[in-house]
Amino acid sequence: MKKKRIIFFLPLFLFLYFVFSYPSKLTVENLLEEMFSVPSPTGYEEPMVEKIIKLLPQEYTTERDNMGSLYLHLGKREPQLTLLSGMDEIGYVVSGLNPEGYLLLDRVVPSPHPLFDSYHLGHPMVVWTEKGALPGVLAIPSVHILSRERRQELQQFSLDSAYIDIGASSEKEAKMRGVRILDAVTAWPELSRLAGEKRAGFSLGNKTCCALLLSLARELDEKKISQKTTFVWMAQTKFLARASRPRPAMGALRVKRKLNPELVLIIDVVPVEGGGETGILLGKGPVLVYPKKEKAGLKKRIEGIAKREGISLQYYPEFGSSLMNPFLSGSGEVLTLALPIKYSSTPVEVVDFKDVRALKKLLSILVE
């Protein structure tokens, strides 16, 4: 009899557990935690696109372009306001397998700075195969068993001398585990909580912008949107178009040609300099970035909302951006609202969630 009671109440217990243990309203931080471990190297953004679609309300209809960017259209009244965020991170691809079972690497896009690759040496990495995620570590040959000439060659680290060790003992074994040429490789996704409301992790600023845009789209009441608003999670923004100066990001250039929007607001990041040369500080509010010859309409609206709501704004005039460049040649208005980040393009980018929440509040009021 006692056993029957347990069997009867177990489904009810499980139902109540999952209903009350899972948050009914996902915050920006909840969404970031959901998205942070999803790989999105340039050209390999499909898993991130699928994740965003899954987290959007089911009644929303999205579309894609041939670069892989994701579009969501809400509202009807003109002029069109377009909110953009890049979703691709800097990653690697498997460029070869040697007879000992080690994987060779190459970059998908150029390194953002000379030390970028060396940051990952000796650290765990993830190889994204058709069979799933495969852990490995970025390493170089042991210098203790090499000749003096070879040791001197390895003093200057480069991808040519590095490999991914997945624990395979042969090329055949590595292939049996699912590894193929051009599989994506990313840093191990570790999101760290720091003092106060700060978080740290690889490509954290970029993925926070994606999560912020998603959070805004999830919570907006479409009936209250004051004008036609398009949300775009852009793919392939780390590829830059050739034969033009300044060079625009390919993903942003494709959005410009597809929509030709009048009002463009880019959600991006701005690095905080250690010496304080730019005057941009972490935790002191979103950063308003605008070109030298900007139209004042959208900028005045943003400044008016910030003043009314007590939101602190930081300013970075004439900051160069490959995401803004495609839109500067048109007749519309383009601005960037950015999150300040510390240690840009390192495995420990730092974001302060006070800035994130302030930026989200500003965007919510602007759109509605």
Q: If classified by CATH, what would the architecture of the largest domain be?
A: 3-Layer(aba) Sandwich
> CATH topology of the largest domain, what is it called?
Aminopeptidase
- Helix percentage range: 25-40%
Number of strands: 17
Main β-sheet, spatial strand arrangement: 1-2-12-3-13-16-14-15
Shape: globular
**What number of domains?**
2
N-to-C order of helices and strands = HHHEEEEEEEHEHEEEHEHEEHEHEEH
* SS element count, helices: 10
* Percent in strands: 15-25%
Rg measurement, Å? 23 Å
**CATH homologous superfamily label of the largest domain:** Zn peptidases
- The end-to-end span amounts to 58 Å
Task: Identify low-pLDDT runs.
Answer: 6-23
Describe, in plain words, how this protein is organized in 3D.
This protein is an alpha+beta fold. It folds into two domains: 28-89 and 203-367, Aminopeptidase (3-Layer(aba) Sandwich); 92-187, Elongation Factor Tu (Ef-tu), domain 3, CATH 2.40.30.40. It has helices at 2-21, 28-36, 46-55, 148-153, 171-176, 204-219, 250-259, 297-309, 325-328, 353-367, and strands spanning 62-64, 70-74, 81-86, 92-97, 103-107, 124-129, 132-139, 163-165, 184-187, 192-193, 198-201, 229-234, 263-271, 287-290, 314-317, 333-341, 349-352. The strands form three sheets. It has an eight-stranded mixed β-sheet with strand order 1-2-12-3-13-16-14-15, with helices on both faces. Helix 8 (297-309) links the parallel strand 14 (287-290) and strand 15 (314-317). Helix 2 packs across helix 6 and helix 6 packs parallel to helix 10. It is globular, with a radius of gyration of 23 Å. Residues 6-23 have low confidence and may be disordered.
